[in-house]
Amino acid sequence: MSETTSATAGNPAPSAAKTVTLTDNSTGKTYTFPVLEGTVGPRVIDIRKLYAETGYFTYDPGFTSTGSCQSQITFIDGDEGVLLHRGYAIEDLAERCDFPEVAYLLLYGELPTREQLTKFETTITRHTMVHEQLSSLFRGFRRDAHPMAVMCGVLGAMSAFYHDSTDIDDPTQRMIASHRLVAKIPTIAAMAYKYSVGQPFVYPRNDLDYAANFLSMCFAVPCERYQPNPIVAKAMDRILILHADHEQNASTSTVRLAGSSGANPFACIAAGIASLWGPAHGGANEAVLKMLTEIGKPERIPEFVRRAKDRNDPFRLMGFGHRVYKNFDPRAQVMRKTCHEVLGELGIEDEPLLNIAMELERIALSDDYFIEKKLYPNVDFYSGIILKAIGFPTTMFTVLFAVARTVGWIAQWKEMIEDPSQKIGRPRQLYTGEPRRVFVSLEKRG
Ligand code: SDX
Description:
By secondary structure, the chain is mainly alpha-helical. It contains 18 helices and six strands. The chain has helices at about 50-55, 90-95, 100-110, 115-125, 135, 145-160, 170-195, 210-220, 230-240, 250-260, 265-275, 285-295, 300-310, 330-345, 350-365, 370, 380-390, 395-415; strands spanning about 15-25, 30-35, 45, 75, 80-85, 90. The strands form two sheets. A three-stranded antiparallel sheet has the order 1-2-3. The protein has a three-stranded antiparallel sheet with strand order 4-5-6. The longest helix is centred in the middle third of the chain and has 27 residues, at about 170-195. It is globular. About 40% of the residues are buried. The structure holds s-citryldethia Coenzyme A. The site of s-citryldethia Coenzyme A has 22 residues, from loops.
């Protein structure tokens, strides 16, 4: 018996190819559930009626085997090391597009024509300035505040500024909010950096493209004219592409869950930034640089590899491993190539941290522990070396990840809002606490 599921806006009805049957051995009862098949990738068992029919919840902390939604934005094949955005391979996009083109693809579902791209770039450029009062928000932070803390605060505050783009039921307002977030996130990130180094904020320049404008807002000073190095601007653009979206990762799932209640889109992005900050997720790029700096010289690598393999030592090789990739992270491959290109073109031939990173990668990839556990370098392993060469402090690395990922977050948020089958996210649990017990008054407690 097979059932077909109803189509949802933007998502074709996955064909219910087959069914699976579950037998409850405690009662002998059997239950049948539809199997849904997407375009590519693993099929899913549709368990939406499981609890109603069986009285059971599923149990999957960390959601290692759980599909939370249907999506058409990004596909990852972790075993093959494949990453597609709307069907296009990340290697092609990184090599042949610029970030605005990829942002358009993620938001609209198709690569833009020349006319569409020009219109999109003009729209984004014309939204790069922030409300002037937003700049006074920064003064409430200590200068030594972590820039990610500032980003959480300022993005959340944006929900108090743009009331004409928060009716999430209005598709026009959803797109305006999307354009505003893609356009203003680099401006806010640059302001967080400038505030941390005590320099004046630099306004966006409409004569520069997205990546070059971001570099200008970060590194220009009022005392002299700044022209971004084209090599560095291209590397920045490619880094933004490589970090733009990545399926239902922790921060994207956070944005979707926050958005599922109908929350303000700017506040949902602030929630995504908070999740990305963790060292197990986007904070890993900063942690990789700290680790490489702590290793200090190639001779100390074996000591750190030993610690990473020791189950009693909480130390992990930052920038290695991934929940989905059990092969090379294709982004890490492109990032490594870009790292060599940028350092070479900047004349930084003998970058000690790069030498340590390359030797660490060589040793780890030949070590049985990493081979058995399929731990490969991920997107964060090389990105920090490039960002350091460009001139960013390590505290800005995750901020740059957030700049790139904002378009992915908002594209996923839009897809969720526009999916008529979406409901507020509300997982259940396995309760292991106290059963109901008699209340004891304060006087009678021991
Ligand atoms: C990102 O989800 C995404 O798509 C995220 C991301 C995106 O674009 O959004 O790709 C960006 O977050 C990349 C990951 C960046 N994080 C790091 O580099 C931090 C170091 N890596 C890990 O902490 C870990 O690999 C995770 C968090 C990335 C994945 O962890 P999982 O999937 O929960 O796997 P696990 O912790 O269960 O590890 C499986 C085994 C464990 O050993 P056993 O308990 O089976 O004996 O592998 C070991 C782990 O101890 N292991 C590592 C390791 N990563 C996993 N051992 C040493 N060093 C590591 N880095």
